[in-house]
Amino acid sequence: MQMAKVIGMVTSTVKVKDIKGVTLLVIQPVNSKHESLGTPIVAADVFGAGVGEYVFYAKSKEGAMNLPIPTSCVDAGIVGIIDSVHTL
Fold this sequence. Notes:
Oligomer: single chain
Distance between the termini: 20 Å
């Protein structure tokens, strides 16, 4: 799992049948200091995360595990919404 900030939403008029009803979000991977890492990616979300929130995400097969159909074809998926981060 990695941390990211939700920076946008994707609107799609046509989707693969397996992900109908699943929200697609644009997320920016970040480190524990909330500094951007790399380029933004699109991730599937079933938790209702909103723009500006921080989330955990997983890539590849693990990213689809929380979707209604866990074998759906997605590159990344939100696996949780972060409430707070405490670093030492």
